[in-house]
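Re: the request from the purification team.
They wanted to know what the chain is likely to look like in 3D before they choose a buffer screen. I agreed to run a prediction and write the result into the notebook, where they can find it.
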Amino acid sequence: MDIITILTGLIKEVWHTFDNASVYIIFGIFISGLIQMFVNKDQIVKHLGKPSFKSVALAAIFGVPLPLCSCGVIPTAVSLRKNGASKGAVLSFLISTPESGVDSIALSYALLDPIMTVFRPIVAFATGIFAGVMENIFGKKDTESASLKTNSCIFCDEEDIRHRHNLIHKFKYGMHYAFIDLLGDIAKWLALGIVIAGVISYFVPQNIIESYFGSGFPAMLLMLVIGIPLYICASASTPIAAALIAKGMSPGVALVFLLAGPATNAAGILAVGRFLGKRSAIIYLASISVSAVVSGLLLNQIYFVSGIDIKTTLGKAGEIIPHYLKAISAILLLILMLIALYKTRKIKCSTAQKGEV
């Protein structure tokens, strides 16, 4: 094949994935903005101080829909800890948050199938609780004060405080967060994930995936080794997982990647060890690894017992959207991503210049 044919085929694969996902990405980003508007996060923080099951469960419940990646969640978790949250609650939040999120749930529905769309956040929630409980039982005793700084607002800025009681301003703030801050943070990684998915779809032979990453315990362990040090957000991992499943990977092995990849990375592991301690870092990694593999094996059994071949349901949600609406959404999302990247870059440059002064 000549270079023109290869590039044309690759672009078609990339655009096909982006086209199918765009409506759901926009919807997920919009819901993220609504969450930012209406959830009183500081009230939740007040209940995370005691090393109890309730604080762990609440942290996991709060973390599952929140759209933060594995690096973005670290500063928030540090703030939670400094404001008095127990280690168990912080660990629960650290795991459940990057493994899921309303944006990645919407994307899962578009590119994967209904079973994985439901199963993924449930496992993220369960993993967060498992890690938090293990920390409460086996972690080093928490000697730091659990008193909360009630006058602090660790999830919001001055703009959020000023507009908290004005619905119009709250909506503007929520949409700015969603389509500028959040989209600006994930746009590069989302684009990279979609491009990698296109490369896998176009270039990678099916027999390679089936031979080395098809199914079973060894394939899941190999996926853990790949996923744990990798930096990838939940949204960006979704199109890659969809492409791998289409090439013959079992849903269980793909789930291990979807859980371990977003939840951990080399920098995050070091950060956890530094501000929670080495024992907590071990519990953090062990909880994610055990939960991912057990959940992957369980998911494979669900598909086997139900007699469902995931290849027949993969990405079917994208087909129910009219072609014209998908095309409009894809173009709109592309424009929104470029605007978000430009504005976030401009803000960072402005902040850096003020710092120099």
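For the purification team: The CA atoms of residues 229 and 265 lie 4 Å apart.
Please add any questions underneath this entry.
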